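haha ok so turns out i had the wrong file open the whole time. this is the CORRECT one, sorry everyone. sequence first:
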Amino acid sequence: MRYYSDVLNKLFNTIEEVNKAEQEHAEKIAAEKKKRDERERREKEVDEAFTHAYELRAAYLKDYGSYAYTYGLPFFELFSK
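then structure:
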């Protein structure tokens, strides 16, 4: 006798195979959701950090009028690695 899984839309030979496959599928879905939630949380954290940095820069510009952008690594970081 064959058993049909409504969740996976597949046929299996035993009810144990159905239960195992559905459980693995549920675990996979849960892991993907956890990973997606973690990514969204970290993305929000980065966005908040950029927003805070832009606010600090705006306050600096208001107080001092200009800001010198530096590109590249500071000299001491070249030899620290």
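Residues 37 and 43 are 10 Å apart (CA to CA).
again sry for the mixup
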